[in-house]
Amino acid sequence: MKLIWRLKSLNKYNNWIFKLAIAVLLLGFAFRFFFYQSSSFEPNIETPFADSTELSKEPVPSVEIPKPPPPVIVDIPKPPASVNTSETSLSSGVQEHEDETPQEELNDGKCDLFTGDWIPNSSGPMYTNATCSLIEGHQNCMRNGRPDSGYLFWRWNPRDCELPPFDAQRFLEVMRNKRWALIGDSISRNHVQSLLCILSTVEQAVEVYHDEEYKSKRWHFPSHNFTMSNIWSPFLVKAAIFEDNNGVSSSEVQLQLDKLDTNWTNLYQSFDYMIISTGKWFLKAAIYHENDTEVGCHICPGKNLTEKGFVFAYEKALRYAMNFVATSKHKGLIFFRTSTPDHFENGEWHNGGNCTKTTPAKEGEIELKDLNKILRAVELAEFEKASAKAAENGVNLKLLDFTNLLLSRPDGHPGPYRQFHPFAQDKNANVQNDCLHWCLPGPIDYWNDVIMEMAVNG
Ligand SMILES: *[C@@H]1O[C@H](CO)[C@@H](O)[C@H](O)[C@H]1NC(C)=O
Ligand SMILES: *[C@@H]1O[C@H](CO)[C@@H](O)[C@H](O)[C@H]1NC(C)=O
Ligand SMILES: *[C@@H]1O[C@H](CO)[C@@H](O)[C@H](O)[C@H]1NC(C)=O
Ligand SMILES: *[C@@H]1O[C@H](CO)[C@@H](O)[C@H](O)[C@H]1NC(C)=O
Ligand SMILES: *[C@@H]1O[C@H](CO)[C@@H](O)[C@H](O)[C@H]1NC(C)=O
Ligand SMILES: *[C@@H]1O[C@H](CO)[C@@H](O)[C@H](O)[C@H]1NC(C)=O
Ligand SMILES: *[C@@H]1O[C@H](CO)[C@@H](O)[C@H](O)[C@H]1NC(C)=O
Ligand SMILES: *[C@@H]1O[C@H](CO)[C@@H](O)[C@H](O)[C@H]1NC(C)=O
């Protein structure tokens, strides 16, 4: 079913590209804020979805960040009374799924870890804001005063297989002397924090490196000699980004579609495990280059360049990156992760969109947005091609397709709680919502159960 659906959406491309070009054109300027990356922290400027690095530097002045806790008594909120811990209340919607076969092919011939349900689980998250000091301010929903806690008491349960919970102790044992890297944009950063927080229940991670702009980082777990890197490479290909400290673009992104970003390729062979992803940055206004020549653009009125649409660039960049991986002779395990869905309702991020749900959605209740469909279709198509080539070359390349897992978690985003107590001054304050990144702890933690199963148990 997924494959059929995908073909359908491929056919819809042309229409969509046109509509999107118009729509995105209108959003043009504002959009740049969305994925803005700042190296500064201007207190007086609203910079919504900064791939912010504030926490990695010094705490935002107005926010009190308690010193690394002497944590013992952890105050984990109790599950709300309304959560019925009987599984049956939720899994009644289990259906026949004809899409098993294609999914299984993509998934190593083992059972499908990506099709399942969120079931209530009263044990809650493995860490909290009090036990983990590595949670970025904008995703620290607990500390920021998110009032509900029901979203913390659901566990991902694949339909056709047992998925044991992430075992941090065992993971670190198995990964002794190994190096991992998560490569991509701010969702990769979101994920690395989740993984580090869980691992830190066994051993504290020590930050051993950060680049000048605090975008790429590396941590070491000394007693396991385990290394975790997070490499900032939002496009995977070479990109020159022109944004000032306030996140205002002075010019389009200059993208070299046939040159990989050496920030990850230079280190590539030094890692044993990698999770590579990209996505939403390709929606931005950009000038496309190939062979050092301008070949077109996306959203560049007045530039006398052909509007190519972002799919043009996304396909080329992904193909190039995946081809590099598939022919790399790498001896470890490489995951390609699809991009993640957002849940803005009543608007988009810049015009009052919000995400107010406090429980997971039922199956089929939320449809993947068209932009997300398009990105994912390109990702799956390019993965399939690369996967065949990787197999021929003895490269172990696997897919992490968390789209459906996350689609049913509209309740897992910070929403207004990307800020510290956003309604403290004014109950009706008009607050920018984040319905793209994920609260920590939150649903993204369960990615790690799946990854452990594939990388350690599988
Ligand atoms: C929980 O679900 C079970 C089975 O569906 C039902 O028998 C029980 O009454 C429910 N409890 C509550 C508190 O809703
Ligand atoms: C809840 O999750 C934990 C692991 O996180 C698991 O050991 C336990 O069996 C689960 N409980 C239920 C009722 O599913
Ligand atoms: C964690 O969040 C709670 C609110 O849920 C807050 O009272 C507490 O101060 C926070 N602790 C830390 C260390 O951020
Ligand atoms: C730690 O792991 C690295 C590989 O990540 C290895 O080169 C190094 O020798 C290890 N150190 C020790 C003390 O085992
Ligand atoms: C690589 O990283 C450096 C430092 O973070 C940055 O200045 C540079 O723009 C990055 N290169 C690319 C191609 O993104
Ligand atoms: C790339 O450009 C150079 C000159 O700038 C040209 O000689 C070469 O043929 C071009 N290669 C491709 C593949 O277009
Ligand atoms: C636009 O580009 C075309 C082809 O490169 C060129 O012939 C034309 O003179 C350009 N127009 C302007 C206004 O620069
Ligand atoms: C969400 O947005 C809608 C439309 O702007 C608004 O009516 C609603 O009050 C918002 N909900 C919250 C909780 O902010």
From TrEMBL:
Keywords: Membrane, Signal-anchor, Transmembrane, Transmembrane helix. It comes from the Eukaryota. It is found in: Membrane. It is a single-pass membrane protein. The chain crosses the membrane at residues 16-35. Its main location: membrane. Residues 97-106 have a biased composition (Acidic residues). Residues 78-107 are annotated as: Disordered. Residues 163-454 form the Trichome birefringence-like C-terminal domain. GO terms for cellular component: Golgi apparatus; membrane. InterPro entries: TBL (IPR029962), TBL_C (IPR026057), TBL_N (IPR025846). GO terms for molecular function: O-acetyltransferase activity. Residues 82-94 have a biased composition (Polar residues). Residues 110-162 form the Trichome birefringence-like N-terminal domain. PANTHER family: PROTEIN TRICHOME BIREFRINGENCE-LIKE 24, PROTEIN TRICHOME BIREFRINGENCE-LIKE 9-RELATED. Belongs to the PC-esterase family. TBL subfamily. This is Trichome birefringence-like N-terminal domain-containing protein. It comes from Populus tomentosa (Chinese white poplar).
